[in-house]
Amino acid sequence: MTVNDAARWLSERNDFLILTHTRPDGDTLGSAGALCHALRRAGKRAYLYPNPEVTEKFAPFAAPYFAEKGYAPACIVSVDIASPGLFPAGFSGEVDLAVDHHPSNSGFARETLLNAKSAACGEIVLEIIEALLGGIDKTEADLLYIAVSTDTGCFQYANVTEDTYLTAARLARAGADTSGLSRLLFRTFSRAHLALEGAVYSGLRTFHNGEIVASVVTLDLMRSVGATENDTDDIAALPGKLEGHQVSLTLRENDNGTTRVSLRSGKRVNVSRIAQQFGGGGHAMAAGCTIKASPETALTMLLPPVEAALDESATR
């Protein structure tokens, strides 16, 4: 499906429910909120699925669009979701349209708009809104700036392209509060978040002659620094700041006996392929999965395929 196809599909339907993924980040929430707002501008009934994992930082931008209990949608749209395993807690059912930028998208929806070259799903949603309504308003510009800036590490990650900067310029031109949002998203943190950062940095482990760096974040560690889910934004990026590494792993213990794994890499290793071995996916340089094991056990499971990928890349 093309952008124009998706815009036409949306224009012909009504009563939308938009899904964001589990442990929602700025891209899924900003993209979904902007699409919801635009559909309402187009005279449609549209709501976000009330994802229970939205953190305090993002709640003001997502909660105003949450569906009330009893809402009966006719169309389900997912945004920034690569597979059913990433559906938000409490949701089950079929998806009519998936809007995504993950190359590992499993094709679970009846219709799919996929652009794996986009740095953020927000770039795709911008194109949809422009095709649907001819342009965006300030609210949508703010929401899409949240989407694009957070999924690119404030335009620092390797996924950033010329089109990403052009998208940011279009959002600024439409009135996005780039300065205020950047301060909120990248330069304002709780004391617990800063304490958690310190614990992550001091507990880094290296393997394979320093080419692999790992952080294990247990529930006990979270409690020891007084951190909650609200304090965990972007901690997956912290191990990757260590000099000399090629692959970074962040392993977070869940309260249900599983471990959420975030993998990051440079250009040598495609971590999406590694994540797919454990039922996950993502991008070549940023991927994730959930393993039914403790963080320590999950680490021992992950190291062999990561080391093998590094060894293979060294022979090319």
Could you write a compact summary of the structure shown?
By secondary structure, this protein is an alpha/beta fold. The protein folds into 2 domains: 3-186, Alpha-Beta Complex (inorganic pyrophosphatase (n-terminal core)); 191-314, Diaminopimelate Epimerase, Chain A, domain 1 (Roll), CATH 3.10.310.
What does it look like?
The protein is of the alpha/beta class and 316 residues long. The chain folds into two domains: 3-186, inorganic pyrophosphatase (n-terminal core) (Alpha-Beta Complex); 191-314, Diaminopimelate Epimerase, Chain A, domain 1, CATH 3.10.310. Helix content is 38%, strand content 16%. It is built from eleven helices and eleven strands. It has helices spanning 3-11, 26-41, 59-62, 121-133, 138-151, 162-173, 178-186, 191-202, 219-224, 271-276, 295-314; strands at residues 16-19, 46-48, 75-79, 97-100, 111-114, 205-207, 212-217, 247-253, 259-265, 281-282, 286-291. It has a six-stranded mixed beta sheet with strand order 6-7-8-9-11-10. Strands 2-1-3-4-5 form a five-stranded parallel beta sheet, covered by helices on one side. β8 and β9 form a beta hairpin. α2 runs antiparallel to α5 (138-151), α4 runs antiparallel to α5 and α5 (138-151) runs antiparallel to α6 (162-173). The longest helix has 20 residues, at 295-314. The radius of gyration is 19 Å and the shape is globular. The protein starts with a helix and ends with a helix. The model has no long low-confidence stretch (mean pLDDT 96).
CATH class of the largest domain: Alpha Beta
Alpha-carbon distance between the two ends = 36 Å
Give the total of beta strands: 11
- Count of discrete alpha- or pi-helical segments spanning 4 or more residues: 11
Mean pLDDT reading = 96
Architecture (CATH level 2) name of the largest domain = Alpha-Beta Complex
Helix content: 25-40%
Report strand %.
15-25%
Tell me the number of structural domains. Answer: 2
CATH topology of the largest domain: the name is inorganic pyrophosphatase (n-terminal core)
- Radius of gyration over all CA atoms, rounded: 19 Å
Q: How do the strands line up in the largest sheet?
A: 6-7-8-9-11-10
Low-confidence stretches: none
CATH homologous superfamily grouping of the largest domain: inorganic pyrophosphatase (n-terminal core)
- Give the SSE order as H and E letters: HEHEHEEEHHHHHEEHEEHEEH
What structural class results from the helix and strand content? alpha/beta
Q: How would you sum up the major sheet?
A: 6 strands, mixed
Overall body shape: globular
